[in-house]
Amino acid sequence: MSALFSRFGSFTRLRLRPFGLCRTTPPAAYLYTGPSKPIPRCSNPDLKKYKNLQKNFKRRLRASYSKFADLQDESVICGRDYVYSVGCEGIYRRDWRQKEAELLLDLEQCCPGGENGGERGEWAVQRVRVSPSERHLAATMKSSHREQARCVVVKQADAATQKDLSKILFTLHNVFSFEWANDEILFYTTQEGLRCSRVFRLDLNSPAAIPRPVFEDTQPDVFVEVALSRDGRILTINSSSKTDSEVWLINVTTPTLEPLLVQRRLPGLMYHVEHWRDGLVILANTGPGQEYQVLKAPLSGPSLGSWVPVYTPCPEVTLKDMEVVGEHCVLTTREASGGLALTVVPLASPLGGFSLPLPLWACSCESRIPGPADPRHALQLLLSSPAHPQEHFSFQPKDRLLLSRPEREGTPPERGRGGEHVTKRLEVQSQDGTRVPVTLFHSVAAGCLQRAPLLLHVYGAYGRDLNMHFSPESRLLLDLGWVLAYCHIRGGGELGLSWHRQARMEGKRAGVEDLRACLLQLHARGISSPSRSAINASSAGAVPVGALCNTDPHLVRAVTLQAPFVDVLGTMMDGSRPLTVEEREEWGDPTADPQHRLAIASYCPLHNITPQCYPSMLLTAYSEDGRVSLDGVVQYAERVQQAVHTHFTALHGAECERAPRVVLNVQPGADHFGPNHFDLVLEESALQMAFLYTELGLDSPRRRS
Q1: Options 374, 625, 671, 679, the catalytic residue
Q2: I need a surface site. Which of 17, 378, 527, 676 has the fewest CB within 10 A?
Q3: Cα–Cα distance for residue pair 349/354, rounded to 1 Å
Q4: Residues linked to residue 442 through DSSP beta bridges, in sequence order
Q5: 625 in active site
Q6: Is 539 one of the catalytic residues?
Q7: Phi/psi of residue 480, nearest 5 degrees
Q8: What backbone phi and psi angles, to 5 degrees, belong to 613?
């Protein structure tokens, strides 16, 4: 429904909570289907000291992925005739009567021989869309070597009558989002550089079948996406900046398929729409404090003047997502306790609403895009947490039933449970008195927490929630006795739009103070200690981490940063860099506002390095990353190394703390979010674990007998 875009990614439909920037990798990269062919990568002499331990963790991670390999995820699509799923080899199709799936679309068929010399395994399927009667299928594939994806349009065949299950009709390049309006017409957006501004229509019935442009937004700070309403009757064109949005509708039941404007762009107005009966359900930041509320509008005249409020949450409740299911508006909400709930508003009689708490362990709630055969009266949900594997639930708002889907035969009893792991939701007080939520996971006894190693995750930018999805890496660390803390600092979206606004532009330092308070108060509560603590962050999450390392390096022993954004000042000063103009809505414009320049200069990680004992650092960067400049990461690593050298040289050999290691791991590729290939995902994660164990001085885990 909406397109909210930043230097560090975008997300489609109405995802007020993001996919998560700390690791966003297409689902196919996490599907373990057996051993895969290793791919050669860049070598760094500084990494050799971690090699043996990295091999150990790679074996453990492969076993962990294998253990959870058969968990269903959001990539499964249920058609009327077939069930579709994504695997490492490509897209699979299974007849409802069959047990074994057949390979419908082979990645080798779409991407022969890889790209730029890469292997087939470096490609991954991103998205799949099936036409209403399953006559056609479209899917995007992405390589680690380039930012843009290619879209393959396929005609399906009947396995009983034809040997080949599919025939590739078109290969469209630089496609970002796409939806079927009907069985023959596909709408899609193209990505130019790091922006999407145009929508095209591909009509398979047309003799020439040449894509035709239907929409373009020339404003430099917007991102355009297409999405299909849950009932499949309305296709939306969403043109959004960081502070406002504009939506156009296409009624797919009419032959003209011409866009209709909902509400023209207004400064500060963000809205998202869904279809219901002959009208629209709108989620807009028109509530108290410019927070989100639910409204209705007629389809015949949907502009702002006709919007009627339906539901406004109380101040302690934050709206995270919205779906229209039959006659009900189903909202995913974050409650005052920090837990997730489903708030249901009957659209015909809004006063009859109710709220249903989700399981206490649930930290992530992902609604599945319905397939052609999915019932429209039920909402399919995937609940998970960093410690708890995905569980599939079906919610029926009419009957107020939340049903856990049964496990498949042969699934181990532990699957789907959090095991013996404990989930705690805490609050810490920041310097200005603000209460900052922290989610804590551990498996060790409470009396042993002080001796346990702590890994803290943080992000805090663009109004995006911290990634709280399940990952085998997190589960492995918990099983090995680690404590995991997820610090929801200001700048993120956990507590609503105001939570983000408090740490934008000149308020960015608030997120740094929140992070500092989290570490100090976790340690004060007897949870680990500075010498056994580490921080992990990615892209924009490196800003508060880098700032903390400059001001309070003694609070942690090690940090691991992926694609780190560390040169905020240099990037915002250079308007010729990709996305810098629109990024100034988040960080400020130092070229036009002296106060913005002073604010950025006060916390920018690269420009505040000073001789002192820094934590050990593992910096992972990608050579062709268009979102974060490699030059900035290299310069940051060199300056920190020089600062450490200066500090220890000044001590003249006096007995002191161990010198930290600053390791720069530059890997090939243009994907800001890391490799697609399963083996490379394992290598990168295993290296991070080996680095943490070595730099924290932990004993390496014993091999299982």
Answers
A1: 625
A2: 378
A3: 12
A4: 422
A5: yes
A6: yes
A7: -90, 5
A8: -90, 100
Mind listing the pLDDT tens digit for each residue in 43-102?
567 788 899 999 999 999 999 988 887 765 666 788 888 989 888 788 999 887 777 888
Task: State the Cα–Cα distance between residues 660 and 644, nearest whole angstrom.
Answer: 8
Could you read off the pLDDT of 164-183 as tens digits, one per residue?
677 899 999 999 999 999 99
**In whole angstroms, what is the distance from residue 294 CA to residue 276 CA?**
13
- Active site residue: 10, 143, 539, 629, which one? 539
Pull the structure tokens for residue 118: 């890469």
- Distance between CA 451 and CA 242 in Å, rounded? 43
What ranges in 553-703 are assigned the alpha helix state H?
A: 568-573, 580-587, 594-603, 630-650, 678-695
Catalytic residue among 136, 421, 442, 672: 672
Q: Where are the beta strands (DSSP E) in 602-661?
A: 616-622
The pLDDT value given to residue 114: 47
CA distance linking residue 40 with residue 44, whole number of Å: 13
Structure tokens at 649: 């040289």
| Number of CB atoms found within 10 A of residue 300's CB | 9
CA 548 to chain centre: 24
| Contact predicate 636/567, CB 8 Å | yes
pTM, whole model, 2 decimals?
0.90
- SS3 of the chain: helix, strand, coil, percent, to 5: 25, 35, 45
> If 0-12 CB within 10 Å is exposed, 13-18 middle and 19+ buried, where does residue 492 land?
buried
Rounded to the nearest 10 degrees, the angle between the axes of helix 678-695 and helix 472-479 is 30
Residue closest to 672 by CA, chosen among 16, 120, 22? 22
Q: Edge-to-edge strands of the sheet including 271-276?
A: 271-276, 279-284, 293-298, 308-311
Task: Say whether 533 is catalytic.
Answer: no
What is the gyration radius of the CA atoms in the chain, in angstroms? Answer: 25
pLDDT tens per residue, range 271-296:
999 999 999 999 999 999 999 999 99
| CB of 245 closer than 8 Å to CB of 265 | yes
